[in-house]
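Our consortium's second objective concerns turning raw sequence data into structural hypotheses that experimental partners can test. To show how far this objective has progressed, the report includes one record in full. It was chosen at random from the queue rather than selected for favorable results. The single chain below, 403 residues long, was entered without modification.
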Amino acid sequence: MPMTTGETIRRIRRSIGMTQAELGALLHFTQPAISQLEHDGPASYDLRVLRRVAKALQVPLTVLVAESDEEADMRRRQFFKTGVVGVGTTVAESQRPEVRTSASSGPRVGAADVDRIMRSIDKIHELQLMAGGDRLCEIATNEVRYVEQLLDIGSYSDKVGKALTSAGAEMMTAAGWVHYDAGRWKDAKRYYADAAQAATVSGDGIAAAHTWINACLLSYREGSRPKEGVQLAQAAQLAARREGGPKLRALAAIREAEALSVIGDRAAMVGAVNRAHRAYESTRGHDPAYLAHLPEAQLSGLTGLAFMRLGDHSEAATYLQSAIDGTAAYPREQIAWQIRLAQNFVQAGAIADGCGVLIEHFAGISTVASTRLQTTLSDIADELRRHVAVAEVREFFGLWTAR
């Protein structure tokens, strides 16, 4: 049976001869609070607490963080075979536990480590396009933890530290995006807030712009704060104008257009759409590698969504079909635009056409690994229940019920 976080803390503490009261003194916790922690109380799920515990026990954070897979449990058990000896020696020499605060005692972090993190970010974005966010949340979360561990206990130069913080901001944004796609909006909001802070600390305008672009989605997709979404998208464009390339500027502008479509300001929305497409065609500036996965078809699809929200369903259908035609290399992304095209038809009252799209691509549409898209599909199905007299609707529900 896999060891829990609480059990792991208890075994490490006992192995170095530390009492619960002593550990509590280091953490400014009471002895009963430590007992609850070791019995997997709520604090055992708080990463901020676990960072402090790891420093107090002088162990890597990854040993304490709860993971479900067998490989992670095996790493923990291996730590108890080899790692505790070193910890015990340290405590014995000092005769009392101390919190390690010097970054120089941790692993040395270099440019190659930052490059590896950036490659992981690129991979997460690519996998999200291919597989959807539901299957990537744990992977992205663990990657964020890895970067945070390097920042907390690693040893690095000022230059590498700045690059590592920027990479951390981008990794947090990637984690926020897959959690958003998985319908875990509170988690996404937390990651975006952490990413914005890291980008500000590192002075990285590109990372800041990317974070604000994604954060504005939460404002207008929830429907409660579209004006805030406009402000975030405009802030992203300002940051991207100074440092970013054409795709980053285009993405920021099209997000502004989407937020404006929620408000219902057609003139301003069309202006933002035009600005987005002009930016995409520009050659000025530098885009990060992860935006290599922003094809023109993506811009077309987001433009289609903006027109759909305004009720201009004819214009929306043109752009959405263009997005479908341009994403053949990414089947999951193509399915997303097929769902949106069906939604646009249904909203326009073209019920048979909307059902025709769903029926033709039902195998992929019904199994796409994105809670966000499955929620949209369920909303479409709820709307279609009012049109059961249409033959295509009955055919769709035959598939829907049997899936």
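The partners drew two points from this record. The mean pLDDT is 84. The chain has 21 helices and no strands. Both points have been shared with the crystallography group to help prioritize constructs.
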